[in-house]
Please model this.
Amino acid sequence: MKFGVVVFPGSNCDDDMVHVLRNVMQQDVVKLWHKDRDIDSFETGDCIVLPGGFSYGDYVRAGAIARFSPIVDAVIEFANSGGYVWGICNGFQILCEAGLLPGVLLRNSNHHFVCKNVFLRTETNNSPITSNIMPGKVLKIPIAHAEGRYYDNPAELQQLEDNGQVLFRYATADGAITEAANPNGAINNIAGICNEQRNVFGMMPHPERAAETILGNTDGRLLFESMLATTSSKMLV
Amino acid sequence: MQATEPQVTVETAKNLGLTEEEFHRINDILGRTPNFTELSIFSVMWSEHCSYKNSIYWLKTLPREGKHLLVGAGEENAGLVDIGDGLACAFKIESHNHPSAIEPYQGAATGVGGIHRDIFTMGARPIAALNSLRFGDIESSKTQHLIRGVVKGIGDYGNCFGVPTVGGEVYFNPCYNQNILVNAMSVGLVKAGQTISARADGPGNPVFIVGSATGKDGIHGATFASADLTEDSAEDLPAVQVGDPFQEKLLLEATLEAIKTGAIVGMQDMGAAGITCSTSEMSAKSQTGMRIDLSRVPTRQAHMKPFEILLSESQERMLIVAHKGQEQKLFDVFEKWDLVCEQIGEVTDTGRLEYFYEGEKVADVIADALVLGGGAPVYKREQKKPEYLKNIAKFKLSKIAKPDNYVEAAKKLFTSPNLVSKRWVYEQYDSMVRTNTVTTNTPSDAAIVRIKNAQKALAVTTDCNSAYVYADPYVGAMIAVAEAARNIVCSGGEPLAITNCLNFGNPYNPEVYWQFVSAIKGMGDACRKFSTPVTGGNVSFYNQSVYKDATEPVYPTPTIGMLGLLDDISTHTTLNFKKPGHQIYMIGTPHNDLGSSEYLRWVHQVEHSPAPVFDLDEEFHVQLHLKKLIRKGVIESAHDISDGGLFTCLLEASFPNGLGFIVETDSNFRKDAYLFGESQSRIMISVSVENEDELVNYLNSNNVSFTKLGEVAGQQIIIDEENYGALSDWKHQFDTLIEEKMES
Model:
């Protein structure tokens, strides 16, 4: 499989994602420029990543303008044909704006940008990025955002919960879902979700910032390993 | 010439911040009376901010050469240090005090933007940011307003720009009530030999302006920065610039990409004095000139006057000189990034700057006459030893009452905002983007930034305890350098070089000038001792506050930004205790000394006391041997004993892993001095029982004084068999004190 990392004007976690995929996980990875429409070289088993950052400065609403970049139409098509699409932080916001994922990301409840390690409880192993992680396992992964408060209307939210589309919730170090452990006021402490088909996933925390021993935290690697395990097992079939 | 310009007289010159003497000098240089545009050009270029006229004589006494330096101080926009493996590090610190005092959000934001531009204009990619902030009394709503604005400004700019804020310092003291200090530092990486110089070589080469359009913001900003801050300063609001970090991010990527095309001859960012400064400095450096057509400069507003275009400090702009015939390469890159790239003139061989507007020449000046090192004036001002030092000399430790209850004294001390966690501040900064910040999960005295695809890491820190400098400018400035070096050494690194940000009061006040000169002497002596040359930086005069019903200069605050290197990242040493049973030692000599301690100021309300005990040779000796102990892998942790003394140091080492301690003080010393005194050149380390003999033997055989303090144990704080309470309670107070003040 190969990975494509989309660069929007204002993306700033693109290099970090490329570094982890290429140098840590030893994967094929190419950068894709937002003005490109042609991603035909990507096949269903490949993965396109929308990285973190401040696309177009996030001066309107995070992700609201990037959603209209030429490449996003191609990404929607790719997702609809079953390709993997992974949005992190600003990428998650763009996926919600583009309608590939339900819900929206609102301004943090304390109105501050917040960057720190948080704990996530893994809610399901039924997704490509959690396939190798035991449900209930708590991961320490950092967040860095001002607009990360996940919200959805009650009906959609119920569906999300019923379908097991919630991948991660903000939790305490021992896995309790509490208000104090919720850094941004997200509804139901939601930190990451996937779509109904489970090929599009978005999350506010940054696993690429927790994937190397030298940085003192490798919990994020589990997501990349899950992704690779999923695709390699599919190839075997 | 433009008929609508004001008539030029001595009064006009004075209104623009020039002296009568300087006005006459300009007349002599030109051989005629300048027009208003020309006078404006001189006024900004000869302002303190651009010309360093009152400081350069003394700055030149600082050590400015060293084996690692690739460019000398002042030669380029920032210092450049060889870090091996074909890599170089560009770094610099700069102030944005006055704009931040008036408009904290934009002032701080554009401070961050400006310092990053200084780094990437050299072709280096910024990889880390630090900042040193000074505010007044945290209880005042005015201070809280300033803190909120500054922190949000730094955060919004740096976070969007995508460079992690990895370290810094925040101090509170009433002397900064009106005049806060905002010093921002940027650190960048570049392959050696691939840097770009701020030169305008090659007459006939085209000159481009790239990035944002030019607006009316920041006009006369450099002049504004070079005058006292007064109650009327709020009316100077247009002198504060407005930042756009998204534009800066595009400008960064586009300029680094443009450099790779080989089309660029030289480049300089536009900061203070905008087009005027960049055109004159680039021309003067290459002994060339420029013809610039101001009507070709893309503007934000219609009908901007030529002098406004020349002086605008609109952010996120660069001046580029390109090789003639290679213009298309530039256009292609800037079009890709949707940025303006407009040719506004060309390089000439006249040595003159000729500015045109709609076909008319609006100014004609000699480039070299404008710049530092050229025609800009150089002054040595009058010095006088300050009166307040007499009060400091009268201080007697014996008159300070010893606490009846040490637990209560410690608790009182820990209500000082200077000693508790600045979490509320730094969590608003992205400290991890670019995935190089080692100290997120393994904290140490200096921030550690790993270099990808190498075994190396940078160690960076900013330091200055201005209370020490106030008490003794010579010693205090030495301590600022020594503490920065100590932080780097404690982290396992080797100090390489410094950048400085010299924040002082009005240089025409002889007492302030005495502080300035004394601090420079101390800084120079310490830098020579540690072989850490000064690569550049910035001087900010005219910092003063109305305080106790009088106008007082701020404490002299020569902030040191130090760069260090871990040649092998495995030498990284953290500050926190690792395991119960590890033994705690203090390296260095304790003293019966409470001089200029936070304890004296906060608990006893004593403002005037001497600087803490400091001996440069002992400092050097202690650091040398700590370095060797770290290389030998003998110790488990190292943390420098500084603000708040040993007690604070112990707690800070305990918090990360929630490990308490049992220690004993030495009855040969006053217990308050032992626990809370800030005598310098002391480092607290922890060591495993297995390595204890090796440690003790090493220290004895190398003549390093040391004291065994106790051991890591439990979750309580036990000193001299007295229980100071649960570590978790202390940590809660430590983490939330500032948060509670700011969010209530």
In short: The interface with chain B takes residues 9-10, 12-13, 15-16, 19-20, 23, 52-54, 56-59, 110, 112-117, 142, 144, 146, 206, 208-209, 211-212, 214-217 of chain A (CB under 8 Å). The mean pLDDT of chain A is 95. The first helix of chain A runs from residue 14 to 24. The radius of gyration of chain A is 16 Å.
